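SEVERITY: medium
COMPONENT: batch folding queue
REPORTER: lab tech (J.R.)

DESCRIPTION
The queue accepted two submissions in a row. Attaching both inputs and their returned structure tokens so the on-call engineer can compare them side by side.

ATTACHMENT 1
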Amino acid sequence: MQQNGVRTGYFLSISLLLSSILYFFASNWPLMVREQKIGVSVAILVLFYLLSYGLRFIKRHSFLSNWLLVAGGLAFGTSVALLGQIYNSHADSYMLFVVWLIPNLLFAIFTRYQPFYVISYVLAHLAIYFFLHPSVIRVAREDEWWFMIFWLIALGNMVLFWLTSTGKWHSKPIYYLSFLTFSLSLFGSSFTEVYGPLPELLYVLTGGLLFVTFLKWVPSRGLLIVTASLLALFVLANFISYMVQYFSESFFVFMLLLTVLIVWGAVAGINWLRRESAHQKSKWVVFFQEAFTVLITTIAASIGATSTAGLLFLIIQDEVVIDLLFFLSLIGFIGPVVFMSRMNTTVRYTLLTMGYLLGVGSILFLEGAYWIIFLLVLLYVWKAVSAIPARLLTQLTFLVVLATKLDEYLPSFEYVLVIIFAMQMAMHYVKQLPVVLQNSSLVYALLSLLILTEKSFQSGSMDVVVNLAFFAVSTYLLYRTLHQQNRVRFGIVLGFWFAFLLMKYYDMLWSLLHKSLSLLLLSLVFFVATLWWDRRAKIEWPKSEPSLFVRKALVLLPVILLQFALMGYQVWSSETILANGKTVKLELVPIDPRSLLQGDYVRLGYTISALDQEQVDSGDKIRVVLRQQANGLHSYSGYYELNGQWNRAYEPQPSDVIINGSTIGGNRVEYGIESYFVPEGTGLEVERNAKYAIVKIGERGDAILESLTNQ
């Protein structure tokens, strides 16, 4: 236990330090010039790697040396992002993540250390995401292109899944991540409007094959649930789509019949599984039956409840329908579940869910004490139906109704969140409750407190108190669950702990610079407290493998040097353009967002971004000729070179400057100068005042945005 506590303390300290560095760089502190910022980023990298190298021979803390090496790989990404901020490269450019990926992927290949595998996987997919969805520009692409991309991503992840599942590559995290991404990519491909019904049919066939595979041939609980959940979501999404198109009485009647057929099929499937399974009482069979029942319940109940409400509204067309739906939920759906104890499980959960959906939907529009009656009914169901899935559903429904109605009576929603936090936290400590319900209560308690940290209070001190309260509570629970050796609860709390750090990045009530200093202080507190605990406890550490620096120093050092070389090349190439490039003045139109890694920036659009009436495909390299006008501005001259061919005969003029760009569809071009990073909180001022951009263009046509001006 003490060993895990010490490890956790060091882990939290390093995490807080990395967050502090990210927040500091994103704040774009105006008192530091670019040379100082570059020096700080290099110094941070050197510090992490020197610490990792220095701790390499401390055998009991080999994990700390490894973690600092990983922290260095992560800090390299923030340093690359800082260089992009300094030289106004694209916000969250996919190239940022590609450059970040290269050394981390080499670390993963040479060390076979699981954190590097996960980091490389995430960075690769972030690069793909920002290539497909650029932050600064909008690229026009056809549905056929998206369909192909979805399937390429799916096939790539399927290869990774096959490698990890067959043991050719040992990485459990990649095993699960690759399957999840594969499944989500296939799911996304089913909604591309190309080739008629082909995308939907391919997804249903592939999903059905995977379902049977993980059910019968290669049994796997987790993969089966992922596959079945996405299939259920696919059915619900298509139901909503068809409902919008064919909103009629006959459609809803047909959907009600389909609900009955789905439930009947589920009952028959469960009975078949019970007959065919040689291990009817095994945990796997019981787990699957419950999970399958919940999934079928979700589909059937959602379709059934929506169809019932829609049909009644079309037939009666009066406000009395709301009252009818409320009493129908109690008498027609919830009532039979409570008083007919021998009812089939799937049928029971379907009726119960339909009753809850109709009850909650009608409560939202009814005034008076109806909601109190409904809550009392929920409490009775909780007592009468002891099955875990039913209680989880009842708990969720109770909290939704309670939060919605209390918000109408209390002065603000903050009071509602405090009540829910206190209620669920108390419920979490009820020892008589099953573990699953204790865990769900913990999730709702932390979720309500986390939402509370995002609320704006009239008193600034109250904001600080609430945020400190969440940090203190979550940190206390981390060590408590660690002491209890409960991995599930520890994972839940750790997830909320990191979610809090991420959400504070976008909290505008507190500057990034102040957040950075606070996180740095907390990092030092955690480190000192853990170091004191480590020395005072005199823990006997078990023998472990030597650190990565001991085993792999000869291959790690070249990769580390590569990181500095990549940063040096970016600085050298950018400084060369700034020193020797031609200066042009361009007219612009700005907007103000925030980058994931680089802080606030102004998004820019230029008059030169449009090639008049000419149409070009997206994704091609283009060289555009800018020509100086009488007012001193450079503008599009009407000439460009695409795929080595000029659009028309071109004769250079003395004032001409050629700039490199990429086509993004239509008549649009982007040049890599569409974002201008500003100190936190100054974006609106820049947006109001900036009218022109001063740009340096090198001999090869590469451009760097130097400054903005209003004249």
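ATTACHMENT 2
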Amino acid sequence: MHRRIVVVVAGTLFALLALVAGIVTDFHDREFPQAVGAKSRIGLDFKESELTDREAFTRLQDLDARLRLGLVKIAPDLAGDSSKKVFVPLNDGAFPARVAWFGGGDPVEVMGRERLDHSPPDGTYLLTGDSAGLGELEKSLASEAVRTHRTEASLVDSFVFVVEAGSFGAAVIAAFALIAALALFWLSVKARGRALRVLGGCPTPRIHLQDLGGFFGALLMSALVVAAASAVYVGVLHGWAHVPSFIKVLAGLQAAVIAASLLAAIALSMSAWPSATMLATRQPAVKSLRTSAVVLQALTFVLVVGAAGPAWTAYRDSAEASAETAQWHRLSDQVAAQFAMSLEEMDRVEPQIGTFVKEAESADAAALSYTLTEDAWETDFGAYSAVAFVNQRWLDLLTADAPEPSLTPVPFSRVQGMVVKEFGEQFTLWSRSKESGGELAAQLRYLEPTGGLRLPVSTGNGELLFLSDVLVAVVPSLHDTFSDADLTSMMSTKNIVFSGLAPTQELLDRQGLAPDRMRAAGFEGEVNLVHVAEEGLLKAQFAAYVTWLLNLALVALFTAFAVVAGVSAVISARLHAKRDFPLRLAGRPWRRILQVRVAKELLAGAGLVGVVLLFQQPDEAGAVLLAAAFAAIVAPLCHLLATRWMFTAIGRRRV
């Protein structure tokens, strides 16, 4: 019976490890897609390079073809669902039309080279070919002041990243706690037999070897069954190409857990060795194991309630992350200008840029968001953490689906002192008509988010902040408010974005800012258009994936606690069997038989919850108390089931 219990409980644990292995395999596949044979990820940063975007891509294509690297750029699918990725090979190769993921979901489309015509060369590339030329690639790009960062495909690194990404580390610790509890249960079952073998003069090493051999055999049997079943499951549903990676991760996890369980069993076996005094006084052989069981249950309980708060925060943030992703979707058609020219040439194009912005604004295609935070401005904005200068087009883009009223007016008189004090001189510098700072400040319209709205505002270079305590200053007209020099500066930092690639490119052509016309005018640099939402969409996708992992980790911890509580209750039932059996025969209800030990556990649990609450955020207290309530139900239930099982076993002379 006890062997079957160990096999079943260990099977539950190894099934949990199979789930972890599946997540690691899925993460590894998303980082290094197996369908295209990805071997490395290479991050490229051209910000310090003097290469134009066109020159950068030409350089990469040449190196890719010569070194047979098989480089594939990762980019959002801006033509379809912008929350998804697309793969763009730099050169022709044996790539599938669509790439399927281990974790399912919509396949990724492999697009042609023209997809990168208006994308920045910065970003992440997959190496799918010969890795021998990577050193030459990095050396060649370094000579052009291009920063590179290479990440090799490694299942170990993927596992470490998953464990470090939030509370998955706690889930792994819970797994070790569960296996240690199984070791306790095994030794408690074997305690009487161990005592008799000690009295019979059996050598100590033989007793250890027999006990640990039986425990190891039960664990190994369970591990092999789970590994075989899960491998078939992965192969049938996810593809046999993923089975080797999955089995490597699962086997590593199972080996680590089994090794830890054997070490725990050895330590517990040595510390709980039956003594002559115990045998002479007829004390239960499992008595020495009770302390370890209580400590283990308390540790797992602390892990559960301690992880509940952060997991709740992650769940709440996941809703915000989903909203943020939706905001990035609204910017998926927005493009920004990227200046690949000297400061002197930028000064020369300022009048053309001013006219360009004026025409785009008249077509309602120019959106401004220029945000200054307290930290960046090194001052105090009072009730606000930042001040965002926007135009109506920006608000229309990013508050279209927000419930009304999402923004409420702020009287100028209420913020006049702060705005004029902090930005008066800056307004004078910005102003096209050189009005005083106070006059320009009075022309703006001021708003603030309400109803829990976290308004997306840009800090520049494609970075968004989602703020609920921001003062929004609405600029009536970009061209009429800001000088050509300031408009050029704001465009260069991507604080001004434009709707639609084709219409924006047409506007550039009309102002003589197309590459060929600028070359004809004697310019060495050029102005390129890039999609502003690319990096933001990829970051939002990653945040959502990590959030999912965090909440799955909490489920793992709840499972671990339930099993640990059950094992501890079985040990407790064995210790109290001489008391519980006659009381139950006398007609005493189970509630009265168990009330003392259950009350002690609940009281101790309440104390531990109080300690955990001291280290939690105030808004996480509800989640902690909910997790504690779960434990307060599971622990008494485990005691009831264990005690009833022990009563039946004694009645049938099985104990």
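NOTES FROM REPORTER
The mean pLDDT is 79.
No errors were logged for either attachment.
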